[in-house]
Amino acid sequence: MFGLELDTFRLYFPLLAMLAACAFVLWVTHWLLIRRQEGEGSSLSRQLILLTLIVIALILVILALPVGESTKGDLLGLLGLVFTGIFALSSTTFVSNAMAGIMLRSVKSFRHGDFVRVGEHFGRVTVSGLFHTEIQSQERDLITLPNLYLATNPLTVVRSSGTFTSCEVSLGYDVAWHKVEPLLKLATLEAGLDEPFVQVLTLGDYSIVYKTGGICSDVNQLLTQRSRLKKAVLDQLHAAGIEIVSPRFINQRQLPAGQVFSAEPKYANANEDGEVSPETKIFDKAEKVVKVRTLLDDVARLKDIVDEHKLALESADKQTRVQLKLRIKEAGERIQSLENIIDKARENQQKEENERS
Question: In this structure, how many other beta carbons lie within 10 angstroms of the beta carbon of residue 235?
Answer without folding.
Answer: 22
